[in-house]
Design brief:
CATH superfamily: dinb family like domain
Number of helices: 6
Radius of gyration: 15 Å
Protein name: Mycothiol-dependent maleylpyruvate isomerase metal-binding domain-containing protein
Number of domains: 1
CATH architecture: Up-down Bundle
Structural class: mainly alpha
CATH class: Mainly Alpha
Domain Mycothiol-dependent maleylpyruvate isomerase metal-binding: 6-128
Shape: globular
Largest sheet: none
Length: 189
């Protein structure tokens, strides 16, 4: 079983991480307390959290909400994404209750998949804009992720997302999603 939206989000994250130059790891990001290395460590830890919730084993080696500043190992992100993909491959579409690391309890399969994809896609955007790469968060992917963001963001605002920003005229789905999650789509270093 594969989940297309998760594959797209994982691909976006892999792509921007592959494009980080040697000096890019220490750059500041839209996650104002974290540099690029910390955002990548956080994103990998979150994906390991989803895998561990589903499989009951593994999990991140460090607190994803207190990531260390050093550059992650070359295979750390790939291993985390592979673990999440393998865990989600065991989940059938339509499963009514799937364990997840969010403080919302078990949720339907599609919701948990979309939440993991949301995390990967938004952090791919964080890394891309911090390192001067094109945004991998397409309006189509963002439009698919807006409903899950609306479902989970309220419970996570205190520690995972900032306060929602007001939409601007002309915002596409990516900009609307980013603003809803407290990010300025026009952010620059």
């Amino acid at each position: 079983m594969s989940w297309t939206v998760l594959e797209q989000a994982h691909g976006a994250l892999r792509s921007v991480v592959a494009g980080i130059g040697e000096s890019g790891w220490a750059l500041r990001t839209p996650c104002e307390k974290w540099n690029v290395a910390q955002v990548v460590r956080h994103a990998a830890g979150d994906q390991l959290g989803y895998a561990a919730a589903i499989t009951g084993s593994g999990g991140p080696a460090e607190d994803p909400f207190a990531p260390s500043e050093g550059r992650p190992g070359a295979t750390d992100l790939d291993a985390a994404l592979a673990a999440a993909a393998a865990a989600f491959a065991t989940v059938a579409p339509g499963t009514p209750e799937v364990a997840c690391p969010l403080p919302l309890g078990p949720l339907p399969a599609e919701t948990v998949v979309d939440a993991a994809a949301l995390d990967a896609a938004v952090h791919a955007w964080d890394v891309a804009v911090a390192t001067g790469q094109p945004s991998p968060l397409t309006p189509e992917l963002a439009a698919h992720l807006i409903p899950v963001a609306e479902l989970i963001a309220g419970a996570l605002r205190a520690f995972a997302f900032g306060p929602a920003l007001d939409p601007e005229p002309g915002d596409d789905a990516a900009a609307r999603l980013l603003r809803f999650l407290g990010r300025d789509p026009e952010w620059s270093r």
